[in-house]
Amino acid sequence: MNRKPKAFLLHGFIGAGKTTFAKRLEEEEKALRFTHDEWMNELYGNDPPADLFPEYARRVFRVMEMTWTRGLSVGTNVILDFGFWSWAERQRTRALVAEHGGDAILYRLHCADEVAWDRVSERNRMLAGGLFIAPGTFQTLKARFEPLRDDEARIEVE
Ligand SMILES: Nc1ncnc2c1ncn2[C@@H]1O[C@H](COP(=O)(O)OP(=O)(O)OP(=O)(O)O)[C@@H](O)[C@H]1O
Ligand SMILES: [Mg+2]
């Protein structure tokens, strides 16, 4: 039997616990994990200049996409630890997964803003592969977060 490889899409705001969950999932599913923040940190440091951040982030997304789509094509399970804040990005990724012969599985990670911010400010103090998140950034970015629509099949992570 030829099973389709899986692409696990992790949806959630900053500090919801996506990367922590992704590290567990990679063991359980034997999946290759793509954590955008880790690559950013490795290539550009843990607090890249704000004016360059979007361009750097795009480059990382591009190279990751070239890689995880090839992974799916050769039958490897992949974990996309990107947050998937926008519906358009989720739609595009689901289509890309299908195009490369995979099955998309969407996980939703959620926690209250106060809890998420407490976790992030704690993580800020010792960034092991993460990015620094300023308090203002947390609030500003919240406006860009588009919660899942009712018709988006998902698995809730407690
Ligand atoms: N279930 C949990 N209970 C308590 N603390 C947690 C839990 N999950 C994650 N954490 C802690 O909260 C912090 C943020 O978690 P994590 O880095 O996994 O979130 P994230 O969603 O990947 O954040 P980001 O969007 O910034 O990448 C980490 O320091 C982590 O150790
Ligand atoms: Mg993360």
Task: Walk me through the structure.
The protein is an alpha/beta fold. It has a single domain (6-157), classed as Rossmann fold (3-Layer(aba) Sandwich), CATH 3.40.50. It contains six helices and five strands. It has helices spanning 18-29, 36-44, 53-73, 87-99, 113-125, 135-142, and strands at residues 6-11, 32-35, 78-83, 103-109, 155-157. The chain has a five-stranded parallel beta sheet with strand order 2-3-1-4-5, with helices on both faces. Helix 2 packs across helix 3 (53-73). The longest helix is centred in the middle third of the chain and has 21 residues, at 53-73. 24% of the residues are buried. Adenosine-5'-triphosphate is lined by residues 12, 14-20, 37, 83, 119, 122-123, 130. Adenosine-5'-triphosphate binds at residues 12, 14-20, 37, 83, 119, 122-123, 130.
Summary tags:
Rossmann fold, 158 residues, binds adenosine-5'-triphosphate, binds magnesium ion, alpha/beta, 16% strand, five-stranded parallel sheet, 6 helices
Task: Summarize this entry quickly.
With 158 residues, the chain is of the alpha/beta class. The protein has a single domain, classed as P-loop containing nucleotide triphosphate hydrolases (Rossmann fold). Helices cover 48% and strands 16% of the residues.
